[in-house]
UniProtKB/TrEMBL annotation:
Keyword Membrane: no
Species in which this protein is naturally found: Naja naja (Indian cobra)
Entry-linked PANTHER family: NADH-CYTOCHROME B5 REDUCTASE, NADH-CYTOCHROME B5 REDUCTASE-LIKE
Name by which UniProt lists this protein: FAD-binding FR-type domain-containing protein
GO MF term list: oxidoreductase activity
Amino acid sequence: MDQSEEVWLSLKPREPLSSQCCGSGCKPCIYDIYQEDLKKWEEAKAKEDISLLSRKKQQSSNSDLTPEIFTAFIISSVTQLTEDTYQYTFKLPGNSSLGLSLGQHIVLRGVVNGLEVQRAYTPITPVNAEGFFEVLIKCYKTGLIHHFWRGPFGGFPYTANQVISITDSKQPLTLIHF
């Protein structure tokens, strides 16, 4: 194998582990991102142009949070609400906000017994909150909390004054937003 081939192989995206998927039906899912990155890598390799691998940062807000990359945020406070449930407050840079829509969530990454584990959480912070975000987390004796986040995810954004009908074979459901 020549040096050029080694360089290309080192740049090839790695398929995510099953433990890296939160199982919440995220849009985009970590597997979707992997497929996009793999396609981009294959096209760049075919054209022998490494510059095609650069990815524009997709941001939904003015924070550093993206669906593709985990970002560390500092825990500014922890408030115990019940015996095993805590409200964690994380700092955001400057006066930035997450900018999540209703129905969206973010993913927390941690390591438990050497295995990377990811969990989805919906922030409880008001949409217009600046400089911080909060999540409620139930802590287990065998669990681990960390501070690396990515997102937002969720394919059911809220739009005021919109009517959506969801029908399955058993019973129709109509959601009316005001």
